What we know:
Elements: E1 6-7, H1 28-33, E2 36-42, E3 45-51, E4 56-60, H2 73-77, E5 86-93, E6 108-117, E7 120-121, H3 127-135, E8 141-142, E9 147-151, E10 154-157, H4 164-171, E11 177-184, E12 202-206
Parallel strand pairs: 6-10
Antiparallel strand pairs: 1-7, 2-11, 3-4, 3-5, 5-6, 6-7, 8-9, 9-10, 11-12
Amino acid sequence: MSTFSKPYDSFRYYHPPRPEVKTTPAQIPMYERMGFGGQPKLNGSCAVLFTNGVSTKFMNRHNDAFIRTLIDNSDLAKLHKGAGWMALAGEFLNKSKRGGDKRTFDGKFVIFDILIYNGQYLIGSTFEERLDILDGLYTLTPHDGYIDKINDYTYRVKTFMNNLKGVYDDLVKIDIYEGLVMKKLRGTLEDGLRPKNNTGWQVKVRKPTKNYTC
């Protein structure tokens, strides 16, 4: 792995990678040609799970701990893999949105990236390299075509490499998905000391609603 990681041996908060740049559905094929993959954007709260298998910190993007999660900390700790600390970035679903079966899909943590592994903060690693790490960590069960199940409270988003416009057109029909996040596969992880440090290799496209437009 072409990474310039740094040791992470005690808890310290780092901001998760989040897209700031917005685009329109018509521009999705252009980003695909530029080497971007696509991940479903879920309608929840951006979250980071820090754990060493014993101590667990489940934090939102504002560096505050989630108070009511419907997930026990001991269960979150079971997601720990490797040696030392790890950190998983994802979306915590807490907005009473419905899945494809029309049932409320709350109290779930849906992973989209790994930031720390084996006690190393993976600064300098590419998004594609971190996907390879995640691929080796958990046994997945297909859920709805856009996320896979790890256990009753944890899921992982799928990453699509082609036909991203078709993926977007289909997934936005489901309530829990608010659009697509496109990520440059060769984009590298920066130190998350500031919220916007990892915005350069991501772009989002949302479905139109009363609350926001693309």
